[in-house]
Amino acid sequence: MQANHVDGLYWCKKWLTNTFTQTCAVRPSRHSTSTHSTSATGYNMLTDHEKELIAKIWDKMIPVASDIGAECLLRMMTTFPGTKTYFAHLDIRPRSPHLRSHGKKIVLAIAECSKDISSMMVTLAPLQTLHVYKLRIDPCNFKLLCHCILVTLAAHMGDEFDPVAHAAMDKYLSAFAAVLAEKYR
Amino acid sequence: MVGWTDFERATIQSIFSKMNYDDVGPAALSRCLVVYPWTQRYFGNFGNLYNAAAIQGNPMVAAHGKTVLHGLDRAVKNMDDIKATYAELSVLHSEKLRVDPDNFRLLADCLTIVVAARMGAAFTADVQGAFQKFLAVVVSSLGKQYH
């Protein structure tokens, strides 16, 4: 429906304006505390326990990477229609092979990185280059996908995705997104 | 005025009619206080918010979570004029409570995740889209009277 499409864009723009401020406002602390392990990136926001929790969750997602990845992308494009503009070259209907293979790439990259969060800057260097020079996705969209990843995890894990796991995962995904965007300018 | 499709209206009514307010309200607010700890600044007199367990077990947080969730009932019943419905509450949050309006979005995100966890696979992409559009309108309306 025409009215709904316009509404969708309007609300997406409002969401984008607000979320980019949030992404900029949250900076990782550079002060090391006894409960936080120092990482090569200087991101000390994750405790060792949180890193283990994150790695465990993503390890379970690897065998179902296509399903999970496709679901995250579909949720993002449905809730935030402006994000569809980056997928004009793909078939993004539910269950399409494009959506599944693209979703799988994203989930596997996030899962791989979660195995050694301290080396994030090194692991993500090729993806940084890809996003800066080729994809050039506006970084405010990373936050939208991160949110939809959290929703997907919640829908699959139920109560197991408790507030502590949610907080840890949110911090990890924010750091991941920040590293991806670091070379933009 | 916001345009709602039949699917969106039906989805919102369905979610809220089936919702267990005593469970979801406390879960959403406590999750917000854990995941975004700076939101605790508004709850200085709520007692022990020292860690996640304390927050989730805090009776004042639970009670307030229910209050806030029931606050959404007005919007559910008046989907065609949410802005006017929340004009008074917006003034309250701005002038008296002095809540940064960005916090409404943070709580809305946590509520979405709690609902997703409760509904599981039934919380499809389309259902999520409708739910988040509804919450975006609520969040915007609550921020409207700030100046």
UniProtKB/TrEMBL annotation, chain A:
Report the CDD domains cross-referenced here.
Hb-alpha-like (cd08927)
Please give the SUPFAM superfamilies that the UniProt record associates with this protein: Globin-like
Key words of the record: Heme, Iron, Metal-binding, Oxygen transport, Transport
Segments spanning the bilayer are: none
Q: Where is the Globin domain?
A: 45-185
| Any Gene Ontology biological process | hydrogen peroxide catabolic process
Q: Does the record carry Iron as a key word?
A: yes
One Gene Ontology term, aspect cellular component? haptoglobin-hemoglobin complex
Q: Which Gene3D superfamilies match?
A: Globins (1.10.490.10)
GO MF annotations, alphabetized: haptoglobin binding; heme binding; metal ion binding; organic acid binding; oxygen binding; oxygen carrier activity; peroxidase activity
Q: Does the keyword Metal-binding apply?
A: yes
Q: What is stated as this protein's family in its record?
A: Belongs to the globin family.
Q: What is this protein called?
A: Hemoglobin subunit alpha-D
UniProtKB/TrEMBL annotation, chain B:
Under the heading InterPro entries, the entry gives: Globin, Globin-like_sf, Globin/Proto, Hemoglobin_b, Hemoglobin_oxygen_transport
Which residues belong to any copy of the Globin domain? 3-147
Instruction: Classify the source by domain of life.
Output: Eukaryota
| CDD domains named in the record | Hb-beta-like
One family from Pfam that matches here is: Globin
Which stretch is the leader sequence?
A: none
Q: Which family does it belong to?
A: Belongs to the globin family.
Q: Which PANTHER family match?
A: HEMOGLOBIN FAMILY MEMBER (PTHR11442), HEMOGLOBIN SUBUNIT EPSILON (PTHR11442:SF7)
Protein name, please? Globin domain-containing protein
Which species is listed as the source? Oncorhynchus mykiss (Rainbow trout)
